[in-house]
Amino acid sequence: MNCPKTVMFDLDDTLNESLEPPKPEVLERLKRLLELIPIAIISGGSFYRIERDILSAFADLPRANYLYILPNNAARCYVREEKAWKLEYDFKLTVQERASIIEEIGKAVDETGVIEKDAVQRPEILDREASVVWGAIGFQASALEKASWDPDLTKRTKLRDALLHRIPDFEVSIGGTIMINITRKGINKAYGVQWFAQRLNIEPAGMLFVGDALYEGGNDAVVIPTGIQTRQVAGPQETLEIIDELCAACAVK
Predict the structure, then answer these.
(1) So what's the pLDDT on residue 119?
(2) Beta carbons within 8 Å of 189's beta carbon, 6+ residues apart
């Protein structure tokens, strides 16, 4: 492997199991890589969750300002300045927009029938201001329950297509194992790649994206047309191996 100029990591099912904190060995490897090149974490998750589960491990590092956080599917970005995390940009949805999106989600769920009426675990909706996130069976369900709900993306593809018809002025993407993410039109992980490339004044071709859903229909696949290099992983263990490869390649660049 050649050393890229920077690496962007997806979060769930890439750096950690879905909605779980990363294991200590993942954080240690990330810190080692950060000593060599800039890193970005780009996720449908919230900044609060990333701060709670990851950022405390980087707070005292001399190169912490080389770590960039793009939560809410890149609808927000945080950078490290003067030992504090600063909101660099924010594509916040208005209260009215979020209310309309939530209403249309309910109609689309009924229309598509993706949730059985007698289902024990009911869907949840998270209003994250810059995004609205729908979870099919609740965010506290076990990893096995989440993975088995829609393994071939059929249900969420059906729901996403219905939502694209109902709210065409917004970005609708499949996320994780049970989620649909909604942001402003054009704001997605591809936007995050392009913004990060401009921030570092490099071409996407010199960057690497590591994610679990780069396959057709996956929520990471939108980055491919940007020209960024990509590596598909099946979980945090494979990501650890890639980080080790990167550390070895970048240490001798």
Answers:
(1) 78
(2) 10, 42, 70, 73, 74, 219, 220, 222, 223
Give the active site residue among 10, 53, 150, 220. 10
pLDDT at 253: 61
Q: What is the mean pLDDT of each run of 10 residues along the chain (253 residues)?
A: 96 87 94 97 93 90 94 96 94 98 97 88 92 91 88 94 97 89 96 98 98 86 97 95 97 77
Helix (H) and strand (E) counts for the chain? 7, 11
Does residue 244 have a known ligand-binding role? no
10 part of the active site: yes
Helices (H), the chain: 24-34, 47-53, 95-112, 143-149, 154-166, 189-200, 236-251
- pTM across the whole model: 0.93
Q: Say whether 10 counts as a known binding-site residue.
A: yes
C-alpha dist (Å) from residue 226 to 105, 179, 230, 242, 253: 29, 24, 11, 21, 25
Which CATH number describes the domain made up of 6-91+187-251?
3.40.50.1000
CB atoms within 10 A of CB 182: 26
* 212 labelled binding-site residue: yes
CATH ID of 95-184, from 1.25.40.10, 3.30.1240.20, 3.40.50.720, 3.50.50.60: 3.30.1240.20
